Amino acid sequence: MKVAVAGCCHGALDKMYETLELLQRRHNVRPDLLLCCGDFQAVRNEADLRCMAVPAKYRHMQTFYRYYSGEKKAPVLTVFIGGNHEASNHLQELPYGGGGAPNIYYLGYAGVVRFRGVRIGGISGIFKSHDYRKGHFECPPYNQQTIRSAYHVRNIEVFKLKQLKRPIDIFMSHDWPRSIYHYGNKKQLLKMKSFFRQEVESNTLGSPAASELLHHLKPTYWFSAHLHVKFAAFMQHQTNSKEELPKATKFLALDKCLPHRDFLQIIDVEHDPNAGDSLEYDAEWIAVLKATNSLVNVTQSAWNMPENNGLHAKWDYSATEEAIKEVLEELNHNLKIPCNFTLTAACYDPSKPQKQVEPVHTINPQTTEFCAQFGLTDINDRIQQAKEEGSVRGEHEEEEEEEMDSTGSAEEPSEYNTDNSGLSSINPDEIMLDEEGGDEDLSTCSVDPSPDHPPDFSASFSDIRIMPDSMAVSSDDAMDSTNEELEKSGVSKQVEEKSLSERPLKRIGGNENGNSGIKKIKRRNQAIYAAEDEDKTE
Predict the structure, then answer these.
(1) Alpha-carbon distance 257 to 100, whole Å?
(2) How far apart are the first and last CA of the chain?
(3) pTM for this model (two decimals)
(4) Does residue 183 have a pLDDT over 50?
(5) By percentage, how much of the chain surpasses pLDDT 70?
(6) What would the pLDDT profile of 328-346 be if each residue is shown by its tens digit?
(7) Residues 31-77: pLDDT tens digits?
(8) Are 197 and 166 in contact (CB under 8 A)?
(9) Which end of the chain is more exposed for a tag (fewer CB within 10 A), N or C?
(10) Which of the four pLDDT bands, split at 50, 70 and 90, describes residue 310?
(11) Where are the chain's structural domains?
(12) 3-state secondary structure of 181
């Protein structure tokens, strides 16, 4: 089957689906599935915009609300993960995944589903070490800290995914797995994005958590976005035993959704011709969720996942064949994910703007039903309980203090500050660099093949626009390809995406003061998000 993969669409769903329709009209290519690698921006209304970690002037409604309201319907089944520019309050309603809109499915904080027998996994958010060991404690209305920490990857999600034993076909993350750039055309990457050099050379670019999952899961394909540049790599994994067959991962990072940009990739994936056309639960993943349910944490306290280090009575939470069988029996062997999407918020109405509406913490019926069906903890319900218990404790403590001290005491600031006016400050997760020229596309650059790599690689990883004949590399010495070499290599045909009437949205503007005496590392996504091809900067 044909699978379309998109990078950061930033809420421009109309543009993305129009591009797919253009492919069908011009080249008779119709994908069976669309995967989006984060920064989806499922914004329903003005309150959702206030929960997106960008300066206020970049909070644009875009077009997702039309699909949420039912005004439009996604023309192809769409599965997405979260990034670091999301309506976090909306995605938080579905921690285990669920329908974000009709025919649009969110994988949750982490998740695995099946489509036509193809196993698809993903993890939402980006990695930040200071939040990695915390629980999912955030809820709207967010303050300046929680509006960012809400989309930071947590160790419990990585731990769950590491319990999987069965092969994964496709995996998605928003930020790149750390070190993946060593397996592709690193020289060309640094030529096009020179402001990555310091992080690449220090091996700090990307997510160590995603890298850990890459080595553990060894999926056939791994797709990422976030850095707004197309980059291909091929990783040959080491085997753990002589009996284990060698495995390799084809990695591809996608560009952002803009006209004339290579933000879509079409691949051919082997599938089960006898499987249905519905999105399905993955029995092993459900069994893992049930096994790890006792580890759910909704506090800010940092803690480590169980390890085989003598400190934990149990550290293996992988699903047994018996546990997987029980899941299948619970579902009567019907793994079809129910179409139970429910509106939980009012949709944006251009004729009736509501700029002062505050976001609220919502428990989504989809999550309630999912948790009840499989005996899981509803994370949002647990957070709500914790808030209420904390509020009661605070009232009692305040009464006791008044009795002991007639002068009283200053009111403690609320952890969930309802004043969101300060959220327009520069996002500390965005590392912006000085402009380094245009956003050339790495898809125009080939990667020299490894001698050990089979010659028919491109046949199974075809590109509707431009894709190298081979992406396999074994060392940094094999990465001196040029655009001229690509022209001679007989790569796949191009599809020139024309402008579809919308101007691209420039994401981050302004400057950040840095220390003098060194090259200023401003916030990376200033350069990443700016639309240099428009010849304008903020």
Answers:
(1) 20
(2) 42
(3) 0.77
(4) yes
(5) 72
(6) 999 999 999 999 999 999 9
(7) 999 999 999 999 999 999 999 998 888 889 999 999 999 999 999 99
(8) no
(9) C
(10) confident
(11) 2-393
(12) helix
Q: Which of the pair, 250 or 240, is modelled with greater confidence?
A: 250
Per the CB < 8 A criterion, the answer to whether 534 and 528 are in contact is no
- SS3 category, 111: strand
What is the pLDDT at residue 309? 87
* CA angle centred on 53, ends 533 and 304, rounded to 5°: 120
Give the closest residue to 123 by CA, choosing from 55, 212, 20: 212
Is residue 212 within 8 A of residue 158, CB to CB? The reply is yes
User: Is residue 38 a contact partner of residue 525, using CB atoms and an 8 Å limit?
Assistant: no
One-letter amino acid of 62: Q
Question: Measured between alpha carbons, how far is 525 from 522 in angstroms, rounded to an integer?
Answer: 9
The C-alpha atoms of residue 313 and residue 438 are separated, in whole angstroms, by 55
In this prediction, residue 259 carries a pLDDT of 63
Q: Which residues contact 524 (CB under 8 A, 6 or more apart)?
A: 195, 430, 431, 432, 433
What is the chain's percent helix, strand, coil content, to nearest 5? Answer: 30, 15, 60
Q: CB burial class (10 A; 0-12, 13-18, 19+) of residue 167?
A: exposed
User: CA-CA distance, 269 to 84, in Å (whole number)?
Assistant: 28
Amino acid at 505: L
**Residues 430 and 55 sit within 8 Å (Cβ to Cβ):** no
